[in-house]
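Known limitations

Files may contain more than one protein. Parsers should not assume a single record per file. Below, a two-record file is shown to illustrate correct handling: read the sequence, read the token line, then continue until end of file.
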Amino acid sequence: MSVIVRDDGFHAEDHEGGATIVIAPDSGLDALPAAFDGVALIAVRFPAFSDGRGFTLARHLRARGYRGRLRAVGHVIADQYAMARRSGFDEVEISDDLAARQPEDQWLARANWRAHDYRSRLKA
């Protein structure tokens, strides 16, 4: 089983149909879809919390015009949630084991990710 993490906390899986594309972290940019017609969800795998290639893939997907649901799947930790959201992910899917080790309150503590953007502080 798994847990979906969003800005308002933990959720059960609620994706119901539509095309889903799963992207491995070692996918090159040429492996990303050129068109997104009918794609309801793109899931980018994170095999380890130390592997940040998925953040780059998310930025490229958004830059190419993908406006659908973008999910980080795998070993993303609560401390990385703000980075995941800033790079374009809508949500993170974690295992039940990780959710038990890093409960909902740890994720919610990072859910105000827009308020802690260093770039906005530089403009002041």
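...continuing to the second record:
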Amino acid sequence: MRWVTVGVVMMLVAALVTPAVAGNDGRYSYITVEDVTIRLVKEQAVVTINYQIDSGIGFLVLLLGKSDLKQKVLDILNFEDAQIQTVDLEHAVVVVNNASNDYGHGSYWFPEHKFGVVVPSLTIITPHDTKYYENVSEFAGGLGYFSTD
């Protein structure tokens, strides 16, 4: 029984200590990103990320808690002032305050942004438009939009 415990601890240490280097395949440590959707509402962004977790790691996340998973999701998305709203083994919803600049009279600017990995499918939704991008590690140039209020 002791060897099983040692084995589980070793797997956990390997998963958590492994360098989390951004690759060109959407992988960050034990997480592989499938897609990201950014819904812009005034200055706020609601970001949904769908991902897969390496087999075997999901059990450890459930057993030991989601704090490492939450931190890795935030590292992948790479937004300042971001807070996890929900997280599970397949997706997370993150709220980002002050994601866009308010230029008054209902006009906003979402600046360029770099992710911690290559995102296979990125969707950005504004009140009047939806933009789709594939295999992006950064959203270059920024995006202007108007609110509906």
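Parsers that stop after the first record will miss the second one. For reference, the second record is described as follows. The chain has one domain: 2-146.
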